[in-house]
Design a protein that fits this description.
- With about 300 residues, the protein is an alpha+beta fold.
- It folds into two domains: about 230 residues, Class II aldolase/adducin N-terminal domain (L-fuculose-1-phosphate Aldolase, 3-Layer(aba) Sandwich); about 35 residues.
- About 40% of the residues lie in helices and about 15% in strands.
- The strands form two sheets. Strands 4-3-2-1-5-8-7-6 form an eight-stranded mixed β-sheet, with helices on both faces.
- The longest helix is centred in the middle third of the chain and has 24 residues.
Length: about 300
């Protein structure tokens, strides 16, 4: 049998990687995924050498010689600046996943909102999120920089590439810096889409057949998904994040309703609170004037008040 050489991996110099780390930092900062000195990212240079961003510097102002190098225990090997205080989060991922070459931790606002609200990002909703992210879990809150931070995400590292950090932010990881960054963009875009969908008041989850086709396509691309792994349990295969969908449906069902001591009833067209502006206007209107005319009058008076206050 003829020998077939493995495909060569292009060599990238350490300086080029440092430049790429700066470029990724600028893109994160420009996107508004971090503010001030927030966030950090890293790249695996070798078995026991990790290139990482320093502490206390804006990710939009990084320079190649700002980068630090640490070992797998977090001990700084080189660098004029102090390494990021959250490097242990990155190292926890590198130790569990030999295939991961880059990790990015940031605070993209829409995805972080879900982490703060403790609402799981749903699956079976958006094709791109299914293919490029898969199930996104939320880890329990741990103080940033705490040694327990990697333990909080450990249950999800092997079956995920993106994890929400409770009340904190997001961590994404992949085969290189671009891959990890794309996941960061996708998870925030997906969270934003979900929030806009909630405003529209309706969510149509993908059907079982649609999900089967989508996961088959993902497998064809060579992307791992825990839901298609041999022996995957039914709860793993099922659509997740139903809390978000139920919240949308509950809000839609409750529109125009109000809670009273006797149950939920339809809200009145006008405020019934004594002393309200609408009630004061209505009390001065003759009985033969229609309700729609009263509404127009209230709006006209309100507009005049607003103009006078400018």
């Amino acid at each position: 049998m003829a020998y077939v050489p493995k495909k060569a991996v292009p060599f990238v110099s350490e300086f080029k990687l440092r430049e790429q780390m700066c470029d990724i930092g600028r893109r994160i900062w420009t996107k508004g995924f971090c503010a001030g000195n927030e966030g950090n990212h890293s790249y695996r240079l070798g078995p026991d050498r990790i290139l990482c961003t320093p502490s206390l510097i804006s990710k939009g102002n990084l320079k190649p010689d700002d980068m630090c190098i640490v070992d797998l225990e977090g001990k700084q090997i080189s660098g004029k600046r102090k390494r990021t205080s959250e490097i242990l989060l990155h190292l926890g991922i590198y130790k569990e996943r030999a295939d991961v070459k880059a990790v990015i931790h940031s605070h993209p606002p829409h995805a972080t909102a879900f982490a703060i609200a403790d609402i799981e990002l749903p699956t079976c909703i958006h094709p791109e999120a299914e293919v490029f992210l898969g199930p996104v879990k939320t880890a329990k809150y741990v103080t940033p920089g705490d040694t327990r931070l990697p333990d909080s995400i450990k249950p999800y590292i092997k079956d995920s590439n993106t994890i929400l950090l409770g009340n904190h932010g997001v961590v994404c990881y992949g085969s290189d810096l671009e891959d990890a960054y794309y996941k960061l963009e996708i998870v925030d875009a997906y969270a934003r889409i979900l929030l806009l969908t909630k405003q529209l008041g309706s969510v149509r989850p993908l059907s079982s057949d649609e999900m089967t086709d989508l996961l088959a396509l993902k497998s064809k691309f060579g992307m791992f998904d825990p839901r298609t792994a041999p022996g995957a349990k039914p709860e793993v295969q099922a659509c997740a994040g139903t809390d978000f969908v139920s919240r949308v449906r509950a809000e839609v069902g409750g529109k125009g309703m109000m809670a009273t001591s006797s149950g939920t009833v339809k809200a009145p067209a006008h405020s019934s609170q004594p002393g309200s502006f609408e009630q004061a206007v209505a009390s001065m209107i003759p009985d033969n004037i229609s309700e729609s005319d009263v509404e127009k009058l209230v709006q006209t008076i309100t507009d005049q008040i607003m103009l006078a206050s400018v």
